Amino acid sequence: MSDRHKTKAQLLQEMERLRADLADIQRIAKLGFWRFDIASGEITWSAETYQLFGLEPHQFSPSYDWLVQTIQPEFRELHQSIADKVIATGKTQTIEYAITRADASMGWIWARIEAIIDDRGQVNGLQGVAMDISDRKMAEIALRESEARFRNLFESNIVGMFFASNQGEIFDANDRFLQMIGFTKEELDLGLVHWDRLTPPEYDQKDQEIIARLRNHETPEPWQKEYYRKDGSRIPVLVGVASIDVELEYTVCIVVDMTEQQKTLDQCRLTEAKLAELNAQLEQRVLERTKSLQENEDRLKLAFNAANMGYWDLDLLTNGIVWSESLEQMMGLKPGSFDGDLEKVAQMMHPDDRGIVLKALEQSIHNDEPYDLEFRFIKPDGTLRWAASQATVIRDQNNVPLRVIGVDVDITRRKQFEEELQKVNQVLEERLGELKQRNAEMLILSGITDYLQSCFTVKDACGVIAALAQPLFPDCCGGIFILSAQNNCLERVTFWGNPFCSDDVFTPLDCWALRRGRSHGVKQGQHALFCNHVNDQHLPLASLCIPLIAQGETLGLLFLCTFKGEILPDIRQQLAKTVAEQLALAIANLKLREQLEEQSLRDPLTKLFNRRYLEQRLSQELARAKRHHYSVGVLMIDVDHFKRFNDSLGHDAGDRILASIGTLLKNNIRTSDVACRYGGEEITIILPDATLEEASQKAEFLRQAIAEMKIEYSGKIVNSVTASFGVACYPDHGETGQEIIQIADKALYDAKQAGRNRVIVAPKEVST
Predict the structure, then answer these.
(1) Residue of 250, 183, 239 whose CA lies nearest to 215
(2) Whole-angstrom Cα distance, residue 658 to residue 648?
(3) Cβ contact 332:383 at 8 Å
(4) Contact 490, 504 (CB under 8 A)
(5) Which side of the chain, N or C, has fewer Cβ within a 10 Å radius?
């Protein structure tokens, strides 16, 4: 078996022996243990506790109510208050109370009650020990019965007398003693007079020695002490004590008032104290005078060491210099090791500061200027430190300088703090500058957003970016390209900066950003990554392409380039992406608006403008023609026999004919001309800046083109589609659009009456 196992076995044996000894002690002393659980109300008793109440061990499980009933009535309230106090304060309490045993006999119990506290600091139960004190209580009763026999003697004594238990309880005293301590008989009966409360702490040890002698059946000699009076003052007394029972539990004390004797003694002591004080003062003065120099020197050393500073003394006659120990330590030298002159001191200074220090010292000596400066010095281990130096020049009666005495303070830490503070301030200034820059950028972005919301065309939106975005990207050229739906290429809408380093028109395949669907930046030295649309003749140092994407659709490209190094830092690139997102969203909204306007102004069948747009546009063209003095032609067209086509071929065929004619007209008129579906099978064409003759020629051209059309429907070719034309002109036939349309419509009617498939020009003399 290992030593550890042997030790463990021995410990277990010792624990078992201790348990057995504890059980014997409880049995012999009749000391019972108990525990009470507050939550469940359960009470647990040891075998000795059952015996205290005259019961067989574990005869039954006691309850709290049963326990209360065993306590004699006059002690029940006290018992309950003590238990409540332990629960409320958590502090241990003791109590003595009388009980009625199981055999109806009376017994006395002393109990110690303590709180059971859980992990949360809450009292959840009580536990303690109980002991049978019936014999002691019977003795006390017997003692009180014999008291009457000695009362007269007790009360007639010229000295103070009192009776007390070994626990310090004073249960009787004569009037003389009560007068000494200032208490009344009633206060004594209330238990307010107690040995411990009367005795100052410095007499506790002596009292314990007296009690020990009594327990050894010795009779102590009277001794002097003091008692507290009720008002807190003290009274000197001479005390004699003796036991009055065999068990040594109770004592009688005789007390003699020593106030007068104490006054005399105090006066003697005061005289002795004054003599001793005078003698001590004389000795102190001698010590102070002999030690003042050493103390001052020690204080100065401590002060210098605490302040990390030292002093020096320069002899101007010998140029020798003396350092204090604290200065030697500050300079990295061992105390008492420095033995040099000013030249050696100068060699310890930083080369850049050496001349400044020596010049300042010279000016202070010869010109009587203040010597106050900061310099760097190098310690023997190579460490660079900072020192602040101040000095004064000592002169003789003829003002001749003799010595320079100075103080050096290590300010390295302060300098480090200043340097750190400077760095922090610099960082704060940089951050403040960045915040100001971000704020300015946010204001510009806000302005861009405001302008974009007010734009009506894509061109306007791109112009806003070109005008307002330049401050966001200094030293950069830029441009905006819009993807053309007709030829699938990107066309430049606007640009800023010079020279502009991109082609004006290119395909999406020429741009890495459009290929990859994300921004593409090229840094200086990465020329191989430039997009194909970057102009070789004006090759920049760096570039950035950002696709204009909204709702998953690529709308164009924002292009930035620079000839001055890096294109943009990351935060600026993010800003460029924000601008691109705003522009893309604005373009998408504008295109959506254009589509909606187009749908509201177009006839869905023929794709020609509708009558509402015709009336607005004709009024605009007539006003423009009036300002610029040119004519405007108006053609009224009607499909011949259109009802017959509908009746014979169906309405779908009629729709096909109207749609085909609409397509033909759009493909054979100028971009400035406006073709509109006037109603039913009637179509109106506005010809700005066209004379009546030019309008007639255009009408004849279109009539022939319609007659030559071959329209396929349901696998068949529809032939013989013709149209009749009526021609009128501003200002020949009127000043308003309504007048001119009426005249053109009258000419159309004449063409129908003349046999259809012909052009009739309204005569100039005709008017409404």
Answers:
(1) 250
(2) 16
(3) yes
(4) no
(5) N
CA angle 200, 205, 207 (to 5 degrees): 75
Dihedral sign computed on CA atoms, order 343, 349, 354, 358: negative
How confident is residue 487, by pLDDT bands cut at 50, 70 and 90? low
Yes or no: say if 340 and 346 are a contact pair by the CB < 8 Å rule: no
Structure tokens at 193: 């007079």
Which of 605 and 26 is assigned the larger pLDDT?
A: 605
Residue 348 confidence (pLDDT): 85
Cα–Cα distances in angstroms (integers) from residue 305 to residues 77, 376, 412, in the given order: 69, 20, 15
681 as an active site residue: the answer is yes
Q: pLDDT: is 601 or 543 the higher one?
A: 543
pLDDT of amino acid 622:
93
Residue whose tokens read 């647990």: 44
What are phi and psi for residue 381, nearest 5 degrees?
Answer: -85, 5
| Element (DSSP H or E) covering residue 409 | strand 401-410
**152, 154, 158, 163: CA torsion to nearest 10:** -170
Which letter, b or e, does each residue of 192-210 get, where b requires 16 or more Cβ atoms within 10 Å of its Cβ?
Answer: ebebeebbeeebeeebeeb
Q: Looking at residue 136, what is its pLDDT?
A: 83
The active-site residue out of 140, 621, 681, 682 is: 681
Domains of the chain: 17-132 (3.30.450.20), 137-257 (3.30.450.20), 309-410 (3.30.450.20), 457-597 (3.30.450.40), 602-761 (3.30.70.270)
What integer pLDDT is reported at residue 768 of this predicted model? 47
Long-range contacts formed by 459-462: CB under 8 A, 24+ apart? 459/493, 459/494, 461/583, 461/586, 461/587, 461/590, 462/493, 462/494, 462/583
Residue 160 scores a pLDDT above 70 = yes
State how far the Cα of 262 lies from the Cα of 282, in Å rounded to an integer.
30
In whole angstroms, give the CA distance from residue 638 to residue 38. Answer: 110
Q: Which residues contact 641 (CB under 8 A, 6 or more apart)?
A: 722, 756
The string of pLDDT tens digits covering residues 248-262 is 788 888 888 888 887
H/E run at residue 415:
helix 412-454
In this prediction, residues 52-64 reach a mean pLDDT of 82
Q: What is the 3-state secondary structure (H, E, C) of 253-319?
A: EEEEECHHHHHHHHHHHHHHHHHHHHHHHHHHHHHHHHHHHHHHHHHHHHHHHHCCEEEEEEECCCC
Residues 6+ apart with CB under 8 A from 3: none
Q: Which residue has the higher pLDDT, 548 or 668?
A: 668
pLDDT tens for residues 714-757?
777 777 899 999 999 999 999 999 999 999 999 999 999 999 99
Question: CA dist 308 to 407, 425, 536, 707, Å?
Answer: 11, 28, 69, 114
User: Peptide bond preceding 731: is omega within 30 degrees of 0, i.e. cis?
Assistant: yes
What does the alpha-carbon distance between residue 235 and residue 258 come to, in Å, rounded to a whole number? 8
The residues facing 237 across adjacent strands are 225, 257
Please tell me the predicted confidence (pLDDT) of residue 732. Answer: 92
What pLDDT was estimated at residue 379? 86
Give me the residues paired with residue 372 across strands.
Answer: 390
Tokens 């308003």 locate to: 736
pTM over 0.70, yes/no:
no
Axis-axis angle for helices 458-468, 412-454 (nearest 10): 160
- Bigger pLDDT: 1 vs 411: 411
Percent of the chain with pLDDT over 70: 85
- Asked, as a colleague might, if the bond just before 499 is cis with ω within 30 of 0, I would say yes
User: What distance lies between CA 719 and its chain's CA centroid?
Assistant: 84
- pLDDT band of residue 700 (cuts 50, 70, 90) is very high
**Dist CA 408 CA 420 (whole Å):** 23
Question: 587 vs 617, which has greater pLDDT?
Answer: 617
